[in-house]
Design a protein that fits this description.
InterPro entries: DUF5785. The protein is an alpha+beta fold. Helix content is about 30%, strand content about 10%.
């Protein structure tokens, strides 16, 4: 895929040191909340997020299936993103199996 920036560069996984949530959280600041999801996806939807050593997906792919149109705060952002990643098979850990 032709990404807007290198998935493993400074805007991405920082040389494969950051994955999933750690990459996504770089796209938001606490003062941007409440966050309108459609506007967020317009700006960042095509950004790459390294999920694991073998997989890179777009922000839009992570948000597939998210019904909310607005996120109230950073904590809710993390919860929604985590739930979406689990639902889409993009989360490496199974919290119920731990």
């Amino acid at each position: 895929m032709d990404w807007p920036h290198d998935p493993d560069g400074d805007e991405g996984s920082e040389g494969r040191r950051k994955y999933g949530h750690a990459v996504l959280v770089k796209t938001v600041d606490e003062d941007e909340f409440p966050l309108a999801i459609p506007a967020y996806l317009d700006e960042y939807g095509d950004y790459p997020v390294r999920i694991d050593a073998d997989r890179v997906v777009s922000v839009a792919e992570i948000f597939e299936g998210v019904d909310a149109t607005e996120i109230d705060d950073i904590q809710s952002y993390h919860q929604i993103v985590g739930d979406a990643m689990r639902a889409n098979g993009q989360w490496g850990l199974d919290r119920d199996a731990a």
